[in-house]
Write a structure and sequence with these properties.
Elements (H helix, E strand, L loop, with lengths): L5 H4 L2 H5 L9 H7 L6 H12 L3 H8 L3 H8 L6 H10 L5 H17 L1
Length: 111
């Protein structure tokens, strides 16, 4: 399974400018003790990065386009659904949460 190049989607210089609202960087973590990961936006980014359409994705998920757009606007998603989407889009979306958890752990050890 492919890993998303987070440098491609969220370059450090653009994180500081908050040009990528789907993921807020370390300053946001320190302020609120957690980052907001807008998983739906990340799923949409991966879909478009692959050059696939919403219609294709809806067919893969066996759902309507309206449901796909609901996924894109979601800030959270059930783990089984995320696993299925990860397989369809050939990307480990769980790795984003793992990275966030590791960064949080590291910040706790610094204190």
């Amino acid at each position: 399974m492919a890993k998303l190049d987070t440098n491609y989607l969220f370059p450090t210089n653009k994180l500081k400018n908050n040009n990528y609202p789907a993921y807020r960087g370390l300053n946001h973590i320190r302020q609120y003790k957690m980052a907001i990961i807008r998983i739906g936006e990340l799923i949409r980014e991966r879909l478009h990065q692959q050059g696939n359409t919403v219609v294709w994705f809806a067919q893969q998920l066996s759902c309507s386009r309206n449901n796909v757009y609901k996924i894109f606007h979601s800030n959270s998603i059930a783990t089984q659904e995320l696993l299925r989407i990860s397989k369809i889009l050939d990307f480990d979306f769980f790795s984003i949460f793992t990275e966030e958890l590791n960064q949080w752990k590291a910040s706790q050890h610094e204190q």
